[in-house]
Amino acid sequence: NAMIVIIQWVMELAPYGVAALVAEVIGTSGVSVLTALLAYAGTVLLGLAIHAGIVYGGMVRFIGRIPWGSFMRAARPAQLIAFSTSSSSATLPVSMECAEKNIGVSKPVASFVLPLGSTVNMDGTALYQGVAAIFIAQVFQTDLSLGSQLSIVLAATMASIGAAGVPGAGMITLALVLTSTGIPTVGLALILGVDRILDMFRTAVNVTGDLAVTTVIATSEGEELQLNSSSSDS
Ligand code: ASP
Fold it and tell me: Tens digit of pLDDT for each residue in 28-86?
């Protein structure tokens, strides 16, 4: 109960604190930082689209041997819930239903791969953390050697695995990525304003990844997948 009260205080203070931190950054770096913020959000969205289309699309098409369009239609209910709740964990029951009813994956495969994926597989989160770390480093003019950039990739992958499937978890573990590479963590305040909207997109990508991997595992187990597009709109 004490923790809840303290967190409530923090939540009430947070908007003022964030405003002050952002004001300081704009005061020292200029208003151009806001344009840069839009470019940052656009880069994350573009990266997510490329990752979903090429990596997952390729996996589903060439390893899972089902058309990408039909897969996306079958996965749509889970993607919509992921988008609106920003939580892979909250989406898990719908993902299971999509995998079993819409894609035709067997229960043993779906109930093993999806719960694991909803906590461990967060490609969208890792991708966002990588872009965010580079963006914050650029705003604070922190030079990143090739070694530091590679350690961002490694740290973001580990941090995304450690992040819980709940809204904003990726933002919290991003602090670890920044600390491990010496980037100022105060930069988190800068991206907080656009985080919720990016969280919606990256969670949808995380959940799409879980379903793509489930499909591939089912095929590799010799299952004949029967896509059911009619129930995908339910
Ligand atoms: N909201 C994300 C998820 O549940 C985690 C994050 O990136 O914040 O998958």
Answer: 777 887 888 899 999 999 999 999 999 999 999 999 999 999 999 999 999 999 999 99
Ligand 1 closest atom vs CA 89: 4
Token pair of 135, please? Answer: 């963006």
Distance from C-alpha of 10 to C-alpha of 72, rounded to nearest angstrom: 40
Confidence of residue 21 (pLDDT cuts 50, 70, 90): confident
Question: From atom 7 of ligand 1, which residue's Cα is the shortest distance away?
Answer: 170
Q: Write down the pTM of the prediction.
A: 0.86
CA–CA distance, 54 with 46 (Å, rounded to integer) = 12
Nearest Cα residue to 131 out of 183, 77, 65: 183
Give the torsion through C-alpha atoms of 98, 80, 92, 210, to 10 deg.
70
Alpha carbon distance 154, 175 (integer Å)? 14
Q: In whole angstroms, what separates CA 37 from the centre of its chain?
A: 18
- Cβ(166) to ligand 1 under 6 A? yes
